[in-house]
């Protein structure tokens, strides 16, 4: 296994870590350890309006209490805005100002992208309409027929997304002035040397856009592995908005139980260990065995 593996877990500090986030954290940590690689933690607080004060430190403390220790300095996106500006500048004329509001885009009736966003109709591609000011910054995607992005997910196999038809020109900087997730994550992963991204399957629809940005910026494309997301009784993705309960720091038995539930959700057939140390001794080789059984290689 490669010694150059660098993975990461990148929570948003919009509240405490919940069971769904713990699954993603555990998968990324186990993959890094199974590859004898590094595991980094990044706080994705670029959307400062949604960040909850103190949530970042609570998340870091919880990870530490679970035995998930980062191998490098923690990075906060809110401190890296100039890096995102630099990247946007490098995109040149492919990044263009857009004066459309949300209602106008929805009313265009081009449809909805897989992530739920309305597909942009290209209204401002040729320049801002007269009397309009810039609301957001968008990235021009290739025209239909040249817009296919294909990649191999390590669990799901070969996937293709057509950017023009399924996403449209997407936002790099939002109308509220915050840099968008798609740009920030690509810049951060490149700067941190991330080689492998392990995250929830709810983000798989972002992957093609991120690969397109990576190619434009001339940075490497990591390997991707998307794991299933935890859902509530109504079938909704478990999140703070759907009533997800926080994973709370507690004694060692409680920590072991939380990790065991996450591991079993990932398909690891673990017996209940007595200690955190015994959990990690069993979980890492169990993840390696799961990879040997399920991993799709390009």
Question: How would you describe the overall organization of this protein?
Answer:
InterPro entries: Glu-Q_tRNA(Asp)_Synthase, Glu/Gln-tRNA-synth, Glu/Gln-tRNA-synth_Ib_cat-dom, GluQ/Sye, Rossmann-like_a/b/a_fold. Zn(2+) binds at residues 98, 100, 120, 124. Residues 8-247 form the Glutamyl/glutaminyl-tRNA synthetase class Ib catalytic domain. This protein has helices at 19-34, 55-65, 81-90, 102-107, 163-166, 181-191, 207-217, 252-265, 276-294, and strands spanning 6-9, 38-43, 75-76, 95-98, 136-139, 148-153, 157-162, 170-173, 196-200, 223-227. Helices cover 34% and strands 15% of the residues. The chain has a 3-stranded parallel sheet with strand order 1-2-3. The protein has a 3-stranded antiparallel sheet with strand order 4-5-8. A two-stranded antiparallel sheet has the order 6-7. It has 9 helices and 10 strands. The longest helix is centred in the last third of the chain and has 19 residues, at 276-294. The mean pLDDT is 90. It is α/β, with parallel strands linked by helices and 298 residues long. Helix 1 (19-34) crosses helix 8 (252-265), helix 1 crosses helix 9 and helix 6 packs across helix 7.
């Amino acid at each position: 296994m490669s010694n150059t593996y660098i993975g990461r877990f990148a929570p948003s500090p919009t509240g405490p870590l919940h069971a769904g986030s713990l699954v993603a954290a555990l998968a990324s940590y186990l993959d890094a350890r199974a590859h004898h690689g590094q595991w980094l933690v990044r706080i994705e607080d670029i959307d400062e309006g949604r960040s909850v004060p103190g949530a970042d430190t609570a998340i870091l403390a919880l990870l530490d209490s679970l035995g998930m220790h980062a191998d490098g300095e923690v990075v906060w996106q809110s401190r890296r805005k100039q890096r995102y500006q630099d990247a946007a500048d490098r995109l040149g004329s492919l990044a263009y100002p857009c004066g459309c509001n949300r209602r106008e885009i929805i009313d265009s009736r081009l449809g909805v992208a897989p992530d739920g966003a309305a597909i942009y109709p290209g209204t401002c591609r040729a320049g801002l309409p007269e009397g309009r000011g810039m609301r957001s910054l968008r990235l021009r995607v290739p025209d239909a027929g040249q817009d296919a992005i294909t990649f191999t997910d390590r669990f799901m196999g070969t996937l293709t997304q057509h950017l023009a038809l399924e996403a449209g020109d997407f936002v790099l900087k939002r109308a509220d002035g915050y840099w968008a997730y798609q740009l920030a994550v690509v810049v951060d992963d490149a700067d941190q040397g991330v080689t492998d991204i392990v995250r929830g399957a709810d983000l798989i629809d972002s992957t093609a856009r991120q690969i397109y940005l990576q190619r434009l910026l001339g940075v490497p494309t990591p390997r991707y592995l998307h794991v299933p997301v935890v859902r509530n009784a109504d079938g909704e993705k478990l999140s703070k908005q759907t009533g997800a309960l926080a994973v709370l720091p507690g004694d060692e038995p409680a920590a072991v139980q939380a990790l065991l539930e996450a591991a079993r959700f990932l398909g690891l057939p673990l017996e209940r260990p007595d200690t955190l140390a015994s959990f990690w001794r069993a979980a890492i080789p169990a993840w390696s065995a799961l990879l040997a059984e399920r991993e799709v290689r390009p």
